[in-house]
Amino acid sequence: MHLTADLSPLHIQSRQWDYDVTFATDIAGAIDQLNLEGTHALVVVDEQVALAYDAELAPLTQQHPTLILPATEATKSLAGVGQLIDWLLANNAVRSSRIVAIGGGCIQDLVSFTAHVYYRGIDWVFLPTTVLSQSDSCIGAKSGINVLPYKNPLGTLHSPRQIAITTAFTQTLPDLEIASGYGEIVKLAVTGPRHFFGRLKDALDEGGIRTPHLLELTRASLAAKQVIIEEDEYETDLRRILNYGHSFGHALEAISGHNVPHGLGVLWGIDLINWLGVRWGMTDPELAERMSVLIREQFQDALNYRLPIDPKAEDLVAMVARDKKVAHGRMHFAVLRTEGDLVIEPRVLDDQLRSDVAEYLRGDYPFKA
Ligand SMILES: NC(=O)c1ccc[n+]([C@@H]2O[C@H](COP(=O)([O-])OP(=O)(O)OC[C@H]3O[C@@H](n4cnc5c(N)ncnc54)[C@H](O)[C@@H]3O)[C@@H](O)[C@H]2O)c1
C-alpha cells in the first residue's frame, strides 16, 4: 500500500471566491472545522442523516434553526426551493446569514441554488454525507434543480464558502449507494495530472469499497477534479473530459428506466468507452483491461450486482444521440488514452458505431445480466 495519508486542506480557486475543503476523521472534527462563529447560521439537513446522526449533529442542530428534508428529486425542485425560501424568511435569514447544508447531492443542489437567488446570493457551507457528494459533486459550484419530470434543467453556479468532509458519515450508506459514488472516483483516478489509479486499486484490494482509506481516496478524487475545474469552471472543452464514462452510462440509466444506479452506469460506461477506445486505436489496451478487472472484482463480484436489463446497441446509440454534447451529428466522447490522458473524440453516431457496440454487448461485459 503506497497511499500517503495526506489530509491537508484543498484550496479551491473559483471565479466567485476561493474556498477550502477540509478533511476530518470524525463528525465532531468536521463540525469544528466549519467556521460559524459570529455568523447567523441556518441548518438544512437530509432526514436520513438527521436520524442516523442525531447526537453527533446536536452541536449544530441545537444551536441553530434547523430544517430537516427528505433527499428526493421532488425536494430539489422549484417547489422545494420555494419551501426553503419560505423557511429562510420565517427564520429571519438576511444577506449576511449562512446556510449549513448537511446531506448528499440532493441537499447540495437545493441549498446551492437557493443560496444563489436568496437576496441575490447568501453564503453556504457544506458537510457532504454521501460518497458521490464527498468525492465529486461538492466542488465545481454547479447546482441542478428539477422541473419534474425534467431533471436538472435549472441551475446556478454558486460556490460554497467551505466544505468539511468526513467519511464517518458513509458508514450508514447502503453498499449500492457507496458503490455508486465510486463511479466518479474511478473516473477521477485516471483524470488529469493528479491521477491515482494505482492507489485506488491498492486501497480497494486491501479493504473493498468500505476501505479504511476512503478519506484519502476522496481527497485524491477532489484534487484530480480541482485541476480541471480551476481551469474550466464554466464547462467548455477541458471540463468535457469529466464526462468520461457518462455518455453510455447515462444512456444505460435512461433505457433501464433509471433502475441502474448512476455510478454503476458510469462504471459500465467507462468499460464500454475503453473498449471502443481500444478498437479506435486510442486507449492503452493494458490499462483498459486493468480497469475492466477492477470494475468486475470490486463492483460486479463483490456486490453481486447484475444489470436489470439486456441493453441493445440501437437503443444505446439512439439515447446517446439525444445528448447535449452531440453537435453536427457527432457525439463528443471523452476517451482515455493512458492514465491521466483523456481527450475529446468527435464520432459520428452511425452504423459502424452501432455494430461496434453490438459486438461489445455480445461479449462478457461487466454487470451482464
Ligand atoms: N451539483 C452537482 O454537481 C451534482 C453532481 C452530481 C449529482 N448531483 C445530484 O445529486 C443527487 C444525487 O446525490 P447523492 O448520490 O449524493 O445522493 P442523495 O443526496 O440523492 O441521497 C441518496 C440517499 O441517501 C440518503 N443519505 C444521504 N447521506 C446518507 C448517509 N450518510 N447515511 C445514510 N443515508 C444517507 C439520502 O437520504 C437519500 O435517501 C442527484 O439529484 C444529482 O442530480 C449534483
Structural class: alpha/beta
Treating each run of at least 4 consecutive H or I residues as one helix, how many helices? 14
- Lateral strand order in the biggest sheet: 1-2-9-6-5-3-4
Mean pLDDT: 95
In terms of DSSP E residues, the strand content is 15-25%
Contiguous runs where pLDDT drops below 50 for at least 5 residues: none
Q: What's the Cα radius of gyration?
A: 20 Å
Query: How many β strands by DSSP?
Result: 12
Small-molecule components bound: nicotinamide-adenine-dinucleotide
The span between the termini is 34 Å
Shape: globular
**SSE order, one letter for each helix or strand:** EEHEHHEHEHEHEEEHHHHHHHEEEH
Helix proportion? 40-55%
> Largest sheet, if any?
7 strands, mixed
How would you characterize this protein structure?
This protein is of the alpha/beta class and 369 residues long. The chain is 45% helix and 17% strand. The chain has 14 helices and 12 strands. It has helices at residues 27-33, 47-52, 54-61, 78-90, 105-117, 131-137, 175-189, 197-207, 214-231, 246-255, 262-279, 285-303, 313-321, 351-362, and strands at residues 10-12, 19-23, 41-46, 66-69, 98-103, 123-128, 145-147, 150-154, 162-165, 326-327, 330-338, 341-348. Strands 1-2-9-6-5-3-4 form a 7-stranded mixed sheet, with helices on both faces. Strands 10-11-12 form a 3-stranded antiparallel sheet, covered by helices on one side. A two-stranded antiparallel sheet has the order 7-8. α6 (131-137) packs parallel to α7, α6 (131-137) runs parallel beside α9 and α7 (175-189) runs parallel beside α11 (262-279). The longest helix has 19 residues, at 285-303. The two termini are 34 Å apart. The mean pLDDT is 95. Bound molecules: nicotinamide-adenine-dinucleotide (NAD). Nicotinamide-adenine-dinucleotide binds at residues 46, 48-49, 52, 71, 76, 103-109, 129-130, 132-133, 137, 140, 142-144, 152, 169-170, 172-173, 177.
